[in-house]
From TrEMBL:
Gene3D superfamilies: 4'-phosphopantetheinyl transferase domain. Coiled coil: none annotated. InterPro entries: 4-PPantetheinyl_Trfase_dom_sf, P-Pant_transferase_sf. GO terms for cellular component: cytosol. GO terms for biological process: lysine biosynthetic process via aminoadipic acid. This is 4'-phosphopantetheinyl transferase. One of its GO terms (molecular function) is magnesium ion binding. SUPFAM superfamilies: 4'-phosphopantetheinyl transferase. Keywords: Transferase.
Length: 202
């Protein structure tokens, strides 16, 4: 199983009916957590991220429902019943992203937005450079399973055999994937309408 990436861009707000469709397939306890989020807009990207994961698992493994998801002591999610299927999930204000592989994988996507001058001094020199560095760091620690604390201490080193791939998305976002393959992963891009249609017909 080579590494593949699924991306959906949120070009508009979800309708209440669409939110209901996505909530129905979101695994517990993430569904309960999202229901406690007061601002409806903040639910949309994580809902789409879990919808992408469902679609990825269906397309790659033929599973109609997500397997049980657990977390390591450092917070990395995994499928206890499917140890040969590794995944990584990320979402930002305008997009969601999922990586799937037979070996550990890490993905991250961030909307480029204003940041403090202090952060620009540390990572900068521009918001675009800051977020390209940020997604690289987060993808690397997700792949290695070190935990987010490791990326706050500086640039995590590439482990022997690990590769980082910058992923092209829409303008206004930075994205990347850390894998154990030198070949860049295949990227599947979806509109919101296409994602919803796929979920309703599977």
């Amino acid at each position: 199983m080579s590494t593949e990436i699924w991306i959906v861009l949120l070009e508009r707000r979800l309708t209440e009916a669409e939110v209901g469709i996505l909530l129905e397939g979101t695994p517990y306890p993430w569904r309960e957590r999202l229901l406690r989020v007061r601002e409806a807009e903040k639910r949309q990207a994580p809902l789409c991220a879990y919808a992408l994961l469902r679609l990825a698992i269906w397309e790659r493994c033929g599973l109609y429902e997500l397997p049980l998801i657990a977390r390591t002591d450092l917070g990395k999610p995994y499928f206890p019943e499917w140890p040969g299927v590794h995944f990584s999930i990320s979402h930002t204000a305008a997009a969601a992203m999922v990586g799937l592989s037979e070996r550990p994988v890490g993905v991250d996507i961030e909307r480029i937005r204003p940041v403090s001058r202090r952060l620009l001094r540390e990572v900068g020199p521009s918001e675009e450079r800051f977020f390209k560095t940020w997604v690289r760091r987060e993808a690397l620690v997700k792949c290695s399973g070190q935990g987010v604390g490791a990326m706050l201490r500086g640039e995590p080193p590439l482990e022997d055999g690990m590769h980082y791939h910058e992923i092209c998305t829409a303008s206004g976002c930075a994205a990347g994937a850390a894998t154990w393959e030198s070949v860049p992963p295949q990227v599947r891009r979806y509109s919101l309408e296409t994602l919803l249609k796929c979920l309703q017909t599977k």
